[in-house]
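Ticket #4471: complex job returned nothing on first submit. Input attached below:
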Amino acid sequence: MSKLKSEIPEGSLAEKWTKHKAKIPLVSPANKRQIDVIVVGTGLAGSSAAASLAELGYNVKAFCFQDSPRRAHSIAAQGGINAAKNYQNDGDSVFRLFYDTIKGGDYRSREANVHRLAEVSTNIIDQCVAQGVPFAREYGGLLDNRSFGGVQVSRTFYAKGQTGQQLLLGAYSALSRQVAKGRVELLSRHEMVELVVVDGKSRGIIARNLVTGQLERHSAHAVLLCTGGYGNVFYLSTNAMGSNVTAAWKAHKKGAFMANPCFTQIHPTCIPVSGDSQSKLTLMSESLRNDGRIWVPKKIEDAQAIREGTIKPTDLPEEERDYYLERRYPAFGNLVPRDVASRAAKERCDAGFGVNKTGEAVYLDFSSAIERFGAEAAHVRGIQNPSDKDIKKLGERVIESKYGNLFQMYEKITAQNPYQTPMMIYPAVHYTMGGVWVDYNLMTTVPGLFALGEANFSDHGANRLGASALMQGLADGYFVAPYTIGTYLAKDIVTGKISTKSPEFEEAENNARKRIEGFLNNNGNTPVESFHRDLGKIMWSQCGMARNEKGLKKAIADIRSLRDKFYAEVKVTGKMNEMNPELDKAGRVADFLELGELMCMDALAREESCGGHFREEYQSKEGEAVRKDDEFAFVSAWEFSENDPGKSKLHKEELSFENVELNTRSYK
Amino acid sequence: MNFTINVWRQNGPKEKGKIATYQVSDISNDMSFLEMMDVLNNELIGKDQDPIAFDHDCREGICGMCSMFINGEAHGPDRLVTTCQLHMRKFKNGQTITIEPFRANAFPVIKDLVVDRSSFDRIQQAGGFISVNTSGNTQDANSIPIEKNDADRAFDAATCIGCGACVASCKNASAMLFVSAKVSQYSLLPQGKVEATDRVLNMVNQMDEEGFGNCTNTGACEVECPKGISIENIARMNREMLKASLK
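Support reply: We reran it on our side without changes. The output follows.
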């Protein structure tokens, strides 16, 4: 078994990154001009990395499948970005952010990586403000903060409910500046369909031009995968329709290990599924849990009456409501981490207390916040004995200024007014903590291939805290990879231009072509979407919020037979050399059908419950997760083998904790 | 619900396009407009016909990828939403719905409803940025206080999603709302003031080169903008332009 080398630097935790940076060999400006770097994906990680590498002097090619880099799905992140600035003087520090993240991840991430993330978090805010990112400010002109789940300080910077948009547009503007300078060649509407490995090193990609359908060869000295997560394996998720695993999966098949693939984040506050034709789910930001209270009826008869429409939620008096998060977790209340909140919602709904037609929804109620803010506002304005109506009106105005765009989005989708009646929410697939295995330098097991942002596995363990994804994407892209890539590229300065005429490029292109022709010449009659939907159902029921041995084994068998059916019966219309969205979809679903099996295998092998991975066999009497640190304090890294995901080999990277004590995570 | 769908079909940029008519049935109230299109496309695939190509991605109104000119309006009849957030409950059973691409010389059709909006990227590249390199040593984020009102207005301008509805809605196919939103965001922030002169000149120049039309103050862009970007931004950009040309 090959040993995974994590390349974690020696020294004390707080010094590792500084010392390591000082030792990384530099590449001289003249040599940088001779070095080509490919960046796949233009979200927060990709755009920031492409811009920063171009500023350093490397020749960069940036690829995205959307029509513009600005549309990558980081744009949809709502709530905020964490940084250990301690502007609120509430006791925050780099160590506390590090500790919260390690604990939030249920002790399944690397100490050194997480500490580095906490260290550079403050630089990110400085950088973004310098770029003109319009964060929310207080009346004194300084930056405002709010709280997110799993922490007891206010360290989240935000721009209303559009923080991801503003950060991505900042990175996109930095990228645009380098495109204008000719330092970055931008290839939008291009999708990576193969990784090219020459002499064991990553030397380029095959990309399909999604407008002309042509396959193109692009060579480089290093390739960076900044391609996001794979939540769309569940079909319904908060990911964009085009979000996919293809680039990462093709790299996996060429030797990049996949780490902890079963670690999926199910976000507690999403708009519930409304019908069979639904194509995606919409998130309601975690920031809403700052002011919204989650409840279901106390009595099962009331829940039934609500489902049947005979009573309304506003009819139920306070004492008939079960604020189950406040009841179970008094210390953190509605702001428990996402995995905990999601499981608690599922528990109530499974017990029959769900409040919509399908029985899969709970309430997120703002009426107490509206009352509180309204009374405050009346007091500030000196209104004596305000009427309930006045208080409500004033309170609604405060809520609107804080969450207006989210309330509007909710109303557009559900046709219900959340100021008048509580929102209905239910957990949905949102983020994947698992991803391509990387060492401390963010290099994968294929030399010269790096993975950044959500595409890698490294910082969030088994559960990601809110407002940490944006932090990690930008940390990797602005402040980590541009340095650490030197460890590899410094040895590559005499290589010269990489030819695209080698047999390896030829073979990779032929493989991609054969695969595409296979789809187009298949004599099936079922559209791609139908297989994707079926895969999603298997994954959600057996590898979702709760998993068990029997279900996972069944899921593996079901996915394998669905995959066979897919290749026998799928129908893809149109031609190869044209814009053909059905063909793009077919390639992506084919990869999800392999990834899904690996996720179930990983979930089966991890015989413990931790973070988002909840094995029903391993729970306490109170239904809390039971971790088994003696046996499972490791990263699962899977090696693809024998051209069959079912034959993947498991490698283990042991996690050592020198700076934190492994405790049972408690939010009570 | 059942609908008659008239939709623009065009095989490629140089081919001639035409309106084709289809019927869809059993559409529920809660479906989004794009989910209705998914249903139609799966039916077309079933009949061995080419599905209708359209741009879409996030389906939550923020990426700006979806377009579609529906019954004479960019993003359809509802206000402050993109096509992906438009729901079928906004239409009447039996209604005829006509769907065209966002039309402008600077947005050539690629296929069916998909248009090329890379002109927007090139305008951004002409000056839509602040020239600051990545460094761990920029000054502390709180070292320059910014008046809340300015920060809020900069944010409002910055919420533009770059979808191009403003261009499609303008009888002159002008991109003034899009360009002015970016110019405004930076001109309202102290960090953006250093390069303000070059920025507005370069971005406006690029806008003209791309073939967008002039602004004649009809305000259609503001009405159809899914993000409610205000035409005050156009006034602000005109002032910036005047200042820059006097320098």
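Chain A touches chain B through 83 residues (CB under 8 Å). Closing as resolved unless it happens again.
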